[in-house]
């Protein structure tokens, strides 16, 4: 690069620097607003986001060909235990046996 090319890139680099600073300041203000609202209103928003994430995960899993839904209480038929997880959901402890006969525990 010659000197004129470097000089033409300086304003663009300065503009990118300013954009990064403004973005970081905005992120900082957003984090403060969220922290203040959580302090004032409790953690209801966090619970809502957890439920939304769980709903999204369930939707993605429901579209998978390798996932089957089993109603709660059917653990005895599969000889696997059950335990209560977050949000009061019941999770089965399933064991998957691979083709090389290694047993891996899922949902521990």
TrEMBL record:
GO terms for cellular component: mitochondrial inner membrane. GO terms for biological process: DNA biosynthetic process; mitochondrion organization. The keyword Transferase does not apply. This is Prohibitin. InterPro entries: Prohibitin. It is found in: Mitochondrion inner membrane. In the plasma membrane, cooperates with CD86 to mediate CD86-signaling in B lymphocytes that regulates the level of IgG1 produced through the activation of distal signaling intermediates. Upon CD40 engagement, required to activate NF-kappa-B signaling pathway via phospholipase C and protein kinase C activation. It comes from Hucho hucho (huchen). Belongs to the prohibitin family. It comes from the Eukaryota. Keywords: DNA synthesis, Membrane, Mitochondrion, Mitochondrion inner membrane.
């Amino acid at each position: 690069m010659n000197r004129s090319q470097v000089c033409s890139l300086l304003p663009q680099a300065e503009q990118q620097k300013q954009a990064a600073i403004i973005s970081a300041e905005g992120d900082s203000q957003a984090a403060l607003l969220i922290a203040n609202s959580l302090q004032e209103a409790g953690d209801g928003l966090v619970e809502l986001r957890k439920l939304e994430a769980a709903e999204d995960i369930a939707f993605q899993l429901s579209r998978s060909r390798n996932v089957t839904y089993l109603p709660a209480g059917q653990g005895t038929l599969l000889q696997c235990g059950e335990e209560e997880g977050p949000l009061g959901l019941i999770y089965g402890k399933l064991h998957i046996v691979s083709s090389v006969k290694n047993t891996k525990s899922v949902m521990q």
